[in-house]
Amino acid sequence: SIAPFGIFIDLGGIDGLVHKSELSWNKVNNPEAGYKVGDEVEAEVIDINHERGRISLSIRRLQPDPWESTVADFKVGDVIDGTVTKLVNFGAFVRVREGLEGLIHISELSHQRVAHPGDVVHEGQVLKLKIISLDSERHRLGLSLKQAEEAPARPAPEAGVAPAVGGEPRAPRARRERPERGYSPSDALSEPEGGIDTTLAAAFAQVRDQLAAAEAGDEPEAIAEEAVAEAEVADEVAEDAVIEAVVAEDVAEEAVIEAAVADEIAEEAVIEAVVAEDVAEEAIAEADEAVVVAKGAAAKAKAADAVAEAKIAESPDDDEIAEAVAEAVEAEEIADEAAAEAEIADEVAEEAVIEALVADEVAEEAVIEAVVAEDVAEDAIVEAVVAEDVAEEAVVEADVAEVVAEDAVAEAEAEAKPV
Question: Tens digit of pLDDT for each residue in 280-295?
């Protein structure tokens, strides 16, 4: 059979489950799209749960891992084609080959600041992308759209402008318009009325430390380099957090589906238990009726025997005696048949009662599993919400670190100008 969360395979008397995450290296949303009941497939046993009587199988593990060939074929700096498969707040997922996806972080979509990935790309769009990271250990592929495109032309640098961080000359950039900041360095360590996000407080504390370091005589260029490095680390942390949030969301969706399926199974099991109970009651009633019939037939046979004995004792007529004996024999045969039918009806009733008890136990287990699945789904939803909050905080930290780095670079450029 096929379920929303995977396919069940007949292993010869018992079923094994291939979860949809184990069907292919590609993401599978609907197992029915690739399989139908009756298909013969090869699968690898990946887990046996004796306690619950379940066997977990995998089809994709018998197929080549596309990541291995990617490591051999691709390298950082390559420009490749990719198709956008999903947009999220922090970037866009792109399929670069069958079974392999990479992430364009929102900061790598354009040379301009991007509010949402949908403002730059859309699902199904084919793009030229540059590989900026290959993490073999975690199977992570980092892509950039802006680095695969030609950067917007910059005005020629003015005479006397010192090189920016990294050693290459760059023109001075206009400072972006910002609202007036209503805080002092001490505010970074204290919470104002109404509360403040501790993440931002920590970031502002970092700004305060950098300002203090500059006042102590540190070189602005060194501060800028450190701020840029910290921004890159914060960006990586944010990327990891958002990917984990997406994974947690997928897990929660699957858990909700499994809980819904478990609930349906429990409902069906309860209905089957009720039907089995009704069947058992009918069988018991039929057995009771058969016993009554058998008792009546036995009584008739006994009466016929008495009549035959009286005929033998009273009448010298052989024909009358023969007739009475024949009636007694026939009554006895009817009684035997009725007794046999009563015995069969009793056995059927016993089996029906046993089946009803088994169906009741199955229903109870199914209800318990449904409750457990619902609890798991609720936990998964909570974890997904927490992961999303963590990701949002990490993105905010990365944005703050980027602003700090831009300010530090601008300050270093300003310091480098001749007076």
Answer: 888 888 888 888 888 8
Residues in the chain: 419
Residue 125 in this model has a pLDDT that exceeds 90: yes
> How distant, in Å, are the alpha carbons of 190, 238, 349, 394 from that of 194?
12, 26, 72, 22
> Higher confidence at residue 190 or residue 28?
28
pLDDT at 204: 52
Evaluate whether 402 touches 235 at the Cβ level (below 8 Å): yes
Structure tokens at 210: 């950098």
d(CA 271, CA 273): 5
Q: What angle do CA 222, 225, 226 make, to 5 degrees?
A: 90
Beta carbons of 406 and 223 less than 8 angstroms apart:
no
Question: Looking at residues 56-78, what average pLDDT do you find?
Answer: 82
Cα angle: 39, vertex 40, 45; to 5 degrees: 120
Query: What would the two tokens of residue 292 be?
Result: 């009554």
The 8-class DSSP code of residue 348 comes to H
Q: What is the DSSP string of 386-415?
A: HHHHHHHHHHHHHHHHHHHHHHHHHHHHHH
